[in-house]
Amino acid sequence: MPSPCTILIVDDSPDALGMWEMYLRAEGFAVLTALDGVAAISLATERRPDLILLDLELPGHSGTDVATILRGQASTRHIPLVAVTGHSHRNQLDLARQVGFDAIMIKPCDPISLLNEIRRLLPPPAAHLATGDGNGDTPRG
């Protein structure tokens, strides 16, 4: 049986991290978590998740710093990045777009909207697996 898509969630709030981890696991995803930018870079480089949900305000390295580093590495530049932020300041959102985020979600995120964005950004075989359609496609990785 193929393994589920892996999503890395990066947020400095343990409560938010736990809530999103539980929700995405219930939706059929494998989940990795990190509380700061340094751990996010390490996990993304070592494990190469299928998608990363990344808070912009993080200790260690900001979300935009993390995105810049990941986009600069051949092994991680293809991973879809979703900025998930409580800030909606235009300059911060413009910077997130400039460094290569594929989507930006403003907290608090509607769970269904976030799930739809994740499925939109995942490659088709992985998206089918996460929807549980049983087509037997193997996710990339």
Q: Please tell me what the overall shape is.
A: globular
Mean pLDDT: 86
Which range does the strand content fall in?
15-25%
- Measured between the Cα atoms of the first and last residue, the distance is 15 Å
Helix content: 40-55%
Helices and strands: which structural class?
Answer: alpha/beta
Low-pLDDT runs: 126-141
Beta strand count: 5
Q: Which strand order do you get reading across the main beta sheet?
A: 2-1-3-4-5
Q: How large is the radius of gyration?
A: 14 Å
Largest sheet: 5 strands, parallel
List keywords for this structure.
single chain; 141 residues; alpha/beta; 5-stranded parallel sheet; 5 strands; disordered C terminus
Tell me what the structure shows:
With 141 residues, this protein is α/β, with parallel strands linked by helices. Helices cover 44% and strands 16% of the residues. The protein has helices at 14-26, 37-47, 63-72, 90-98, 111-121, 124-131, and strands at residues 6-10, 30-34, 51-54, 81-85, 103-106. Helix 3 (63-72) links the parallel strand 3 and strand 4 (81-85). The chain is globular.
